[in-house]
Structure formats: C-alpha cells, structure tokens
Model the fold of this input.
Amino acid sequence: MSKAALKQAYIDNLFYIQGRFREVATPHDLYMAAAYTVRDRLLARWVKSAQAFKTNHARTVCYLSAEFLLGPHLANNLVNLGITKIAQESAADLELDFATILEEEEEPGLGNGGLGRLAACFMDSLATLCIPAIGYGIRYEFGIFDQRIENGWQVEKSDTWLRNGNPWEIPRPKICFPVNYGGYTEQYRHANGTLRRRWIPAQEINGVAYDTPILGYGVGNVNLLRLWKAEASQSFDFQAFNVGDYYGAVHAKIEAETISKVLYPNDEPEIGKELRLKQQFFFVSCSIQDMIRLHLHTVGALDSFAQKFAAQLNDTHPALAVAELLRLLIDVHDMNWEAAWNITRNTFSYTNHTLLPEALETWPVQLFERLLPRHLEMIYAINQQFLDEVRTRFLHDEERIARMSLIAEGEQRRVRMANLAVVGSQAVNGVAALHSELVKTTLLKDFYELWPEKFHNVTNGVSPRRFIVVSNPRLAELITEVCGSDDWIQDLTLLRQLEPYATDPAFQQRWRNVKTAAKCDFAQWLLLQTGIQLDPQALFDVQAKRLHEYKRQHLNVLHIIRLYQRIKQEPNIEVVPRAFIFGGKAAPGYYLAKLIIKLINAVAEVINHDPQIEGRIRVAFMPDFNVKNGQRLYPAADLSEQISLAGKEASGTGNMKFSMNGALTIGTLDGANVEIREEVGAENFFLFGMTADEVQRKQAAGYHPWEVYQNDPELKADIDLINSGVFSHGDSALFRPLTDHLVNHDPFMVLADYRAYLTCQERVSAAYRDASNWDRMAILNVARMGKFSSDRAIAEYAQQIWQVAPVAV
Ligand code: 26Q
Done:
C-alpha cells in the first residue's frame, strides 16, 4: 500500500497486462493498469474473507436481483481501500492525470434506475457492515441503453460496456450450472417405491459465474457479486453435431446466449415477453443451485439450509426462486414436501418497490406451462395448500380467496408473482414508511390481514461513500475538517456535528465555495455535452430520474413556461435567475415519456434563445443520466425536484442523494420525502401538494382536470402556449397527446397540484434571495441526513429481516 509499491505495481501492470510502456500507452491502457493495480489489492482481502466465512459458518445474505447498477468501480474502490490520496500522488509522480484515468472507466449499467442502484448501495453497505453476502444477478452483455438527444428526441444507442474488457470481474468457468426450459412432466416410480413426478425438459443451457469483489469501506471484508452469463450447453451441442446438423448446433448456441444478452429497459413489466421470463428463471436457477452447492460442501445436509442463508427477493423479478428451491429440494434432493416447504418459507424475504397495481408482475399461465411446466405444478400445489389456509380463516369469503390466489382467473389465466413472493417468504417489506403503510392497507391488504407479523418497513438509504466521498470530494473534505475526523463516513449520524456551524458566516462562506465549485464543474461539463451555458450564480433547479408520468416532469415544465410568460409579459420583472436541469431515460416504448423529453428540449430551445429572457432562466436536458453523470450532478444542485403524485413513488433515492449534497427539496408528501422532511425539519423543506389521502379521496369523488384548466387562467395560458406551436415551429399538434391527456384524464393529477406547486416555487425563489439563510438550510439538510445512509437500512434488514451477524475479517 506504500506509494513506491503502488507505482511499481502500476508500471508492471501496464507492461505485463496491457503490453505497453508509459510512452505509447493510450488513456485506456492507463486506466486498465490502474484498475488491475487496485484489483490486485482487493484479491488478498477477498481470499481471506472467503476463508473466514467458510470456517465461521455464518449466516450469509443472498441478495437476488435482476439489476445491479454499480457505477464506476475504480474511484469507489480507492476510497474503500483508503488509498485515494496515495493513488493521486503516485499518478502525479508518474506525470499522469488522475482525473482523466478515472474518466476512462465505462460503468456497468446493469439496471434501470432506483431498484438496481439500491442493490448496488446495499452491496456496499453489506460489506462495510462486515455481513457475509453474495449478490446474485445477470451479467447482461448490453446494459441500459446510452441515451443521445437528437433534434430534441431521445435516441437509444446500445451499451457496449464489455467492448474493452472488464478488469473488475473474474470468470469462473468451473462454476457453471445447467438451466432447463420446456418439455413436460411425468409420473414415475422412485427407487424407494413411491410414485413421484419429474420434469423432462426440452432445452438445456449453462450459466457461468462471473465474480466481482465488493470491498467494504475501511474494513477487510470483501463480499461477492456473482453474475451469470448464459452459454450453450456442450452436451446439447454435440448431440446436434453428431447427427450432422452443424448449423443447428451453432444456432442453438446463439439462442442460448441471447438469454443474458440484454437488460430490458423498462421499469414496468411488459406483457408476455417470453425472454424476460427466461432471464428471470435463468439467474434464479443458477443462484439457487449455487447456494445448494455451497451448503452441501460447507455444512452438509440440506435440513439447515435456511439457517445458512437469508435470501432477499429484490421485487418479484426473482420470485421464481421460491418454486425453484422447492423443486430442487423435492425432485433432486429427495426431500418431502413439508420439510422442503418449511425450508423455502424460512429462506426468503421479499421487498416490494411499487404501489402502481399495473406494475405488479404477472405471467400468462400458458407461457409458464410451456417454459416451466414443473414449476407451474409446484405453484399449483403451493396455491392449494395456501388457499386451504385462507379458507379456514375466512370461511366463505370467495372474493378474498380469488384475490389472494397465486393464479388470476379470467379469459387468460395468469400467475401473480407478488402473491407467490409473499406466500413463499417469511418477511415482506416496503421501502419507506408511507409506502409500507400503503402496502399493508391497499396493495397487499388481504395478506396483511392474514399475516400481520410478516410485514415490515425498511426505509431505503444510499451509500455515503459513493454519493458523498466519491462524487463530492470537496464537501467530504470540508465535513471531515469540521468534524475533526472522517468517522462520519461509517456513521452518517455524526453529520449532526455540522449543525452548530449552520449560522457561522465563515463556515457558510466555505460551504458556498464548495457548492459554487461543483456548479462550475458541472456547467463546464454540460457545455461540452450540449452547448448550453449555465450561470453558476443561478439557482440550479434539478429533476433527474427516470421519465414517468407519475414523477411529473411535465409539472416542472409548466412552472418553467409560467416563468417564461411572466418575463415576456413584464420584461423588467425581477426574477431569481434559475437553471432548470433535467436528466433521465424514458423506456423506449413509452411514448408519452419520450414526448415529455421532446417537450423539455423544445421549451429549452425557445427560452435559451429568446433575447428578452437575457439568460435569466435557462433550461437544459443533460443526456445519458447514469451513475457516472449523476455523480457530477448531485453536488451541483441547489434545489431537488421530488414532485411525484403522493402515493405513487415507493421511496425515491435520488431525493436522498441530492439532500446529502446540500440541495433543498421541493416535494410532495410521497415516499421517503415524508421522512426526509421529518429529519431535516419542516422549515427546511419546500412542501406542496395533495397528500396520499387527499389524492384517494379526490379520485373517488371524481377528478375533472378540464375544470381546473378552465378555472385557472395562468394554467390555461401555459397549456395553450404549448398547443399554440411556439415550442414546435408552429406544429400545434406535436404535444397534443400530452396536453389532451393532462386536461382530460390524467391519472397523475398534474393540474390538481399545479397552483400549489407554483406558490411553493415562489417561496423557493424568495428563500434563495437570502443567501445566508439558504446556506443555513442547506447545511442543516446535510447535517440531518444521517438516517438515509444505506448502512442504517442494512443494519435494519440484518436485525429485523435476516437475523444475521457481522463477521469481521
Ligand atoms: C419487470 C418485469 C418485466 C420487465 C421489467 C420489469 C421491471 C424492471 C425494473 C419492473 C420494475 C423495475 C424497477 C423499479 C424501480 O426502480 N422501482 C424503484 O425502486 C426504488 C428503490 O426501492 C424506489 O426508491 C423507487 O421509488 C421505485 O420506483
């Protein structure tokens, strides 16, 4: 870990791995050498951790997730190893530009948004809290698409993150499991004389493990992220080859490999996508087989499986694990139903991430039967036993039984994955206090009434290593100096030590310098990306998240249009200069979300070029919002837009990242906003809008946006301006699908919250005018965000859900 050793190792890696001398190395060579130098330093810790976990027999957390949105590894690993400074100095000695080397890394975008990023923060915290854990997922060859903006529209480019190799993963060709699909089931007589059923599948592919070490901060513990890649199964290849069908054999190979080829870019289920179901079963089956293998050779008999593993289902995407574990225990390991079902139910827990009923996953029984006939039998058997239990509790309540069934009856029968997950789990949790309440009282009400003790809340959190130390080093340094140590990085509640400085003018000045520097950095980057120039003195008003109607980016746009019209009507009016910054990807098939991106860019185009505006307001859409670009953005924000319709955003985690970096929040009482406001104090949070209760009542009474539109002249003028074509070169039809929707039948009630939002934005502007008071509020926000560390969240899971204890290596 000395500087001399680091430099020597770097030069060696450059030569022996990249085959280059310093003089001819490309930026990519320089990055690879750095990555290998850091990786080498992880490996010793990794081996030691594996040994410690093996001898210790500790209960291990298996985090099953179809997505892990890790972000760049290099800077994060340097921080967790505690060698950022030495690495910087080494680079300087070698006359290398440290920042350029970090820039070179392409992030693994193996997730869509919040859910995938949460899994990554949780992996960081599990290691930091010394909890033995394996993350199981899919090694997508193509992650979430790269977003370009062309003529104001989103254009998707495929993400080729593996193009130049991935120095952080270690392939494990020997850790490889067969995964089957299709075929049929049959009855047979087992050697012990009993009649049993078995699965005769039609297809077999292989899952090969690729391991990435996940180092904790300031500890020796390294956990494992094990992602599965699909490959053709040799035995099937040869079979085809032997009968002379060489082409067919190659074709089968290609088809097998498509299973882990690409991440589905939607954050809501699409109907009937067969490949998606195949992906889910693929990674679940490999993971469960791997857990069984590990158990058999560390502990032995499978009876104690549930004592050895706590498996977390990250939403319903891995819910098939319930049926797969049951099947393997019964069909392959000869266990009886009772014993196998007990183990299964004691192994799993399920986290729900949505309240939108349309976002609950279901699969057509027909498709299920064709792909996974034996699992469907298992699900039927689980269902029968389960519904018997419901019947004894709720005699004759057939409606309830129909709602709770794992199978939705109807024209097309469907398997309900959430019901399977709840029935197969020992604990169920939501991701913020409000969300967990709504899960109990609405989404999974029937299940709560049956098993109230199963239901928990674990409010989400984010990693302060990635989202403060790595992304905002200036702020981290200031905090460390004032707190007198960097202990806060492991115990975020220590940020409270900042509170006494909130009104200290000297500290406020330093605080402002940090913020301004981040805004300048961001403005410089944005200018390069978009050609749009932002004034670092302006209020940076930011909304960055997936594009979705419920998140209401269009509400934000209506506010911008209002300001625009105000300035146009009264050119000398004093307004607080604002830079509106948007970022986020739209699902490629989500037409309205893409139209909202076009609208943002269209409004930006007009406002940014209107000489009468004189730059007082600026609008920018930053392309390709991902972890790497998010890290540039969070430190630069003054105001964080968290304006979803109350009751729709399960938690949100961007809200936490912004606030931790000293942005104030304008938000509704939705998801974790509620708890953020409680923590930072109502007086330091810009609240507006209906509550979830009010939303429910208004919807029940009948929501008539047309009347709102007719009765609010400013609102009417804003919508009419969009429809006039001024933002679309005279094309008055372009945004009609959007405006018609808002005015006629918008389930997310944008117009209902419009007036409250505008009034609240005026309070924001007034507050920004008083710089010292703004800084005070921002400092208090950071000081009081301790709760939202993912370390706290993981500590709660460990205690409430998993019953696991740390094993310090
Ligand atoms: C399901 C089936 C088929 C295809 C895609 C999907 C799919 C993929 C991703 C469904 C949902 C997702 C992602 C959901 C998600 O990111 N939810 C967010 O989770 C965060 C972490 O808990 C919360 O903070 C957010 O509020 C929630 O929206």
In short: The chain has two domains: 57-72+107-460+794-802, 504-788. The first strand starts at residue 60 and ends at 64.
